[in-house]
Amino acid sequence: MNKSFKIFGWTLLILAFFQTSCDKIEKPIKPAVELDTTIYPGNWDDYPEPVWMQNVNTNRNLVLEDYTGHKCPNCPDAATEAQNIELANPNRVFVASIHAAPGGVSAFQAIAADCGQPSNPNDKYCTKHYCDESIAYGNAFQSGFGFFANPMGNISRITPSGENMFELYGNWSSRVTNVLAANDLKVNIQAQSNYYSAANGFYLHTEIEFLEDLTGSYSTVVYLLEEKIVDWQDVNGTADSLYEHHNVFVGCIDGLAWGRSISGGTSTGDKTYFDYSYTLPSGKDNTDYHLLIYVYDVATYEILQVIKHEI
Length: 311
Prior knowledge:
Elements: E1 5-8, E2 33-36, E3 62-68, H1 75-88, E4 93-99, H2 132-140, E5 152-155, H3 172-182, E6 187-196, E7 201-210, E8 218-235, E9 238-252, E10 260-261, E11 271-279, E12 289-297, E13 303-310
Parallel strand pairs: 3-4
Antiparallel strand pairs: 1-2, 3-5, 6-7, 7-11, 8-9, 8-10, 8-12, 12-13
């Protein structure tokens, strides 16, 4: 194994003489994850492992996934509605602008055919805002979820009884109001991170705790969102070079669109820990981004809890 990597996490040694009558391990076990230790500027053995306090949060937060495109003329109206909902519900609703269409990429997300050519001197529609993960979501949700066009979106991928997961933006606010009022919190999330400017990278540590007994399979996903991108956008038929794209989803920090499977149990009080390392793009730093960390039901895609984390 390359010495620049270290297995980060606890190793459970099953020894007969440690067996007791207890049927629950008091200290949760972290799954082993390889981290890029070159981000840390010192001796990796001195890296501070996270210390976790009891999570006392009682609120279920929501992510509003706005599926959009830079050549979609009606998408700015949806983006404005999403941002207004976010502003009206601070620290409870978080927007992720996902550049994807049913089936992945359509003409709304595609970059111009003449980028870098004299016919397009201002590089109009030449930024690729979609990514592998957004394409995966567009493919997964193209059938059976009500996602048939841009702009459309969902509220924590919840599918209300008799309705679709995806909805037009005029109905987002009422859905948010209903879910916030129910405040059905089943999972809590905590996060800690350490950013090192010299390497322009960070380590993220997360704790997932189940608050009631659940069956099924659950996974954790970490979105990297760029808070503001000023670039071309079709606004109701007019090309705007100075449009401000809000909270653009640029990918998952581990490259896993569907996240990491939770292995620490799904009974009340069970905890699972995940550790990540990530180097930010050149020319950007931690002030340009934030993270959304969520837990979802693998069978239904519903996001049970989400938190925003500043890097």
